[in-house]
Amino acid sequence: MLVPCFYLSQMKTGTFSEWEVLQKKESRPVVIHLYTDWCAVCKIESYRLSKDKELIGMMNEHFYFINFEAEKTKETIHFQNQEFEYLQNGNSGIHELALALSKNRNQPVYPLWVFLDKHQNLVYYQEGQMTPERMKEKLKEISAL
Q1: How many CA atoms within 13 Å lie on the side-chain side of 64?
Q2: What is the pLDDT of residue 37?
Q3: Which residues contact 32 (CB under 8 A, 6 or more apart)?
Q4: Packing angle between helix 53-62 and helix 132-143, nearest 10 degrees?
Q5: Beta-bridge mates of residue 93
Q6: Measured distance CA(45)–CA(51) in Å, rounded
Q7: Distance in angstroms (rounded) separating the CA atoms of residues 12 and 83
């Protein structure tokens, strides 16, 4: 009995390749969240966003959500008719797509939020922490487009 309730309270996340397939079936806006494992602000933000049931409902019903670990994701990603690779730098590295999505091409600021409409056009960009209230506000604005 607890499993369905727990599942319904989770934000559905996907990968870029899954999104590409889903977008062909049903075109929706997408929210891309870039983060890293070492980012304390990212962890706090994720915790706060995951506790807002209204936000989770809005996101799951009307948007696709991609949670993208910018420094650990190593597979090639096809996005907007381009291929992006992981750039190894010694024991670490960064994904080319993280650099492409960031306005700061040398070192993205985390967390980083990129909102695209259902036609994959940029409609909102935010560096730094996103509050549940701000996220709901932006989702409502994008839903009205």
Answers
A1: 24
A2: 93
A3: 66, 68, 101, 113, 114, 115, 116
A4: 30
A5: 88
A6: 10
A7: 25
CA proximity to 98, closest of 88, 90, 107: 107
pLDDT in tens, 110-145: 999 999 999 999 999 999 999 999 999 999 999 886
Amino acid at 56: I
Residue-wise pLDDT for 63-92, tens only, equals: 999 999 999 999 999 999 999 999 998 889
Q: Which of 59, 71, 3 is nearest to 34 (CA)?
A: 71
Q: Which helix (H) or strand (E) holds 118?
A: none
Checking if the pLDDT of 1 tops 90, the result is no
Nearest to 111 by CA among 71, 57, 143: 71
